[in-house]
Design a protein that fits this description.
Helix content is about 70%, strand content about 5%. By secondary structure, the chain is mainly alpha-helical. A hairpin with a 2-residue loop joins β3 and β4.
């Protein structure tokens, strides 16, 4: 229909929310890569960020067009584009679990960066494969299983992770947070019709600089320097191919593959989240472009995979439609190509932007319960537990490192005060575990015992191959174990997590037996 609009008033709110969300990831890359991975600032500003920007631009333009096309075909005026950007959890995993260990082992900036490129490339390939099996996964996975794990990430790694930072600096962060909550929850309009996100950042930035000028030591500007110039992306396939089949890269498959699965499943969950909000997009084309985006990102020098972003219901609630996505891609690209990220981190405190992320996390958490059948609420709640375990492990490890210790040293001392090995086991492959537990409980609630048994068999298979629950605790931390362990009775190998393999298989057998026993009987 010709009246379908590319831009509406809500796109400004949505654009600023998504822009700040994407900008936050770029700011983290600009700060953490030199600090943690030893990468020179010139490499980050001149190679990594421009490569990421082109991927973000292409993806955002596609998803904007996809939304516009859906709106035109259906005649609706409330279709919201899928948000797209760098996944926060993957970003931290790539930096702390892949690139930082490589730099600690080799002290080579180039090797550290190249292994990051391999991780990004493999994640993109997994997304491409997922484009052809994604519809099947969506059809056979209960909505509660798809949404509960997503809400678990939202309430932990997003909402809880950032609200601590908000409460650590309340004079700077509290008012911007409530500007966001008031603007989006009460749907009020601010002076001069400013979008809530923009108004919150302006107020937070003013508070930070005003308190600093008054002599209060609440906030310190970033020391990242800004040099004016144009940073065009450059193709770096030789750096990627150099390490693609090198043992140094493959030793990190235990992190790369789960994070690839995380991005794939997370994208499926986000598509399901959009469908629950009324926007039904093609799984195949969405995941295909998603995968191409990460591959292009790696070929242009970015070590960080892009993905369909968490938070579609949040942007929809803001009134965003198709145009916000295109605006975000263009703005992010210009910012990166002109080196503007290093300038931004000098003047805008990250704390002023955190209320937006908190709101997105709240909306996603609420949707998981609102958009599933009421009698499946228990399954949603059960699916929240593995992400909570993963987040708890992150807090424990961070605390021990700050105290000059390590999990390897402290684990034997916990005893029954904290079943630390249970926390670790539940955190390994937590996204998959969340889906398995939630889906199983859905089918138990529906008394479809054979389907519940099938999901338990999936748990047994994933435990056997190390995608969930398997780990080694070594001096440097928790080491993932993917694949069969050498030695043992199974053709010279043993299962990666034998206890869990047997436990899941036993439950599967019992449930299937119960299915056979009750299929011709009425269960009271």
């Amino acid at each position: 229909m010709s009246h379908t609009k590319w831009f509406v008033r809500g796109d400004l709110d949505g654009f600023f929310g998504l822009f700040i969300d994407n900008l936050l990831q770029l700011m983290l890359i600009a700060i953490l890569c030199p600090m943690v991975c030893g990468l020179p600032q010139e490499m980050v500003i001149g190679t990594i960020l421009p490569g990421a920007a082109i991927s973000i631009l292409v993806g955002n333009l596609f998803y904007a067009y996809q939304a516009w096309r859906l709106a035109r075909r259906t005649g609706r005026d409330d279709v919201t584009a899928l948000p797209y950007g760098i996944n926060t959890v993957s970003l931290f995993a790539y930096i702390f679990l892949i690139m930082a260990p490589v730099y600690a082992e080799t002290h080579s900036e180039v090797l550290t960066w190249q292994v990051g490129l391999v991780a990004c490339f493999i994640s993109g390939v997994m997304e491409l494969i997922g484009a052809f099996i994604g519809d099947w996964l969506r059809r056979h996975t209960p909505r509660a299983a798809l949404l509960s794990a997503l809400s678990g990430i939202a309430i932990t790694f997003i909402s809880m992770g950032f609200i601590f930072q908000i409460y650590a600096s309340p004079l700077i962060t509290f008012l911007p947070m409530f500007i966001i909550l008031t603007g989006y929850a009460a749907r009020v309009r601010w002076p001069f019709q400013l979008p809530s996100g923009l108004f919150a950042v302006l107020v937070g930035t003013g508070l930070a600089w005003g308190l600093r000028a008054a002599g209060f030591d609440f906030w310190h500007p970033s020391t990242v320097s800004y040099t004016p110039g144009i940073h065009l992306p450059r193709a770096v396939p030789q750096d990627l191919w150099q390490l693609l089949f090198d043992p140094l890269s493959w030793k990190y498959l235990a992190v790369i593959i789960p994070m690839g699965l995380f991005n794939l499943i997370g994208s499926l969950q986000n598509l399901e989240s959009a469908a629950a909000a009324g926007d039904h997009y093609s799984t195949r084309s969405s995941l295909f472009v998603n995968g191409i985006g990460s591959i292009v990102s790696a070929l242009l020098g970015s070590a960080f995979a892009t993905t369909i972003y968490i938070g579609h219901p949040g942007w929809k609630a803001m009134g965003a439609r198709a145009g916000y996505s295109a605006l975000n891609g263009i703005a992010i690209t210009l910012l990166c190509l002109f080196g503007g990220v290093s300038l931004v981190v000098q003047y805008i405190p990250i704390e002023a932007t955190l209320g937006i992320l908190l709101w997105i996390g709240i909306i996603i958490m609420a949707q998981a319960f609102q958009e599933t059948p009421k009698h499946h609420a228990g399954a949603v709640a059960l699916g929240l537990i593995p992400p909570l375990a993963s987040w708890a492990l992150l807090l424990i490890e961070s605390t021990l490192r700050a105290a000059g210790s390590s999990l390897f040293v402290a684990a034997p001392k916990f005893g029954t005060d904290l079943y630390i090995h249970g926390v670790i086991a539940l955190s390994q492959g937590f996204l998959l575990t969340s889906m398995i537990l939630s889906a199983t409980l859905v089918f138990l609630i529906e008394r479809l015992f054979h389907k519940a048994a099938a999901w338990m068999l999936v748990g047994a298979a994933l435990s056997a191959t190390g995608f969930i629950h398997a780990y080694n605790l070594i001096p440097t931390g928790v080491q993932n174990v993917i694949g069969l362990r050498p030695g043992g009775w199974f053709f010279g190998h043993s299962f990666a997590a034998p206890d869990f393999t047997l436990a899941y298989a036993t439950v599967a057998a019992v449930l299937f037996g119960f299915h056979l026993y009750t299929r011709n009987k009425k269960v009271n």
